Amino acid sequence: MERLMKTTSSEETFRLGERIGKRLQGGEVICLYGELGAGKTVLAKGMGQGLGVKEEITSPTFTLIQEYDIKDRQLQFIHMDLYRLQVLEEAEVIGVTDYFRDDCVCLLEWPEIITDLLPDDKIEIQLKGSGDLPRTILINTGDLELGL
User: Fold this and answer.
1) 119 CB contacts (<8 Å, ≥6 apart)?
2) Which pTM does this prediction carry?
3) I need a surface site. Which of 31, 87, 121, 141 has the fewest CB within 10 A?
């Protein structure tokens, strides 16, 4: 299922992420596509809050992977930024697919490098726009119904 949405501020992008996060159950692999400054991390922060992450969500640009425990749901929110990876083998070495499990919601920024490793039932979100411009956000959930 595809849905096209628009946001006009980072607050609206955050709130959209929060709405998505509230509907996630675990086992989802979410791929975020968009240029630098498109709002991927803002959307990710909203998703984390919607899932129930208590601590501040930060961009994993340098650490590559941030893990957040959601204790009351026995779930982990895994936020990956694969921007710095150069080849598929690097993703295999750091264990990206180890997080594709039912007790995790796995969010990937810059997933293009691992296309061959991604599950068929992934959620894809394409963000367009940057700076103060409105965002166009295309959400493809495949067979999953998020009720957005």
Assistant:
1) 29, 100
2) 0.89
3) 87
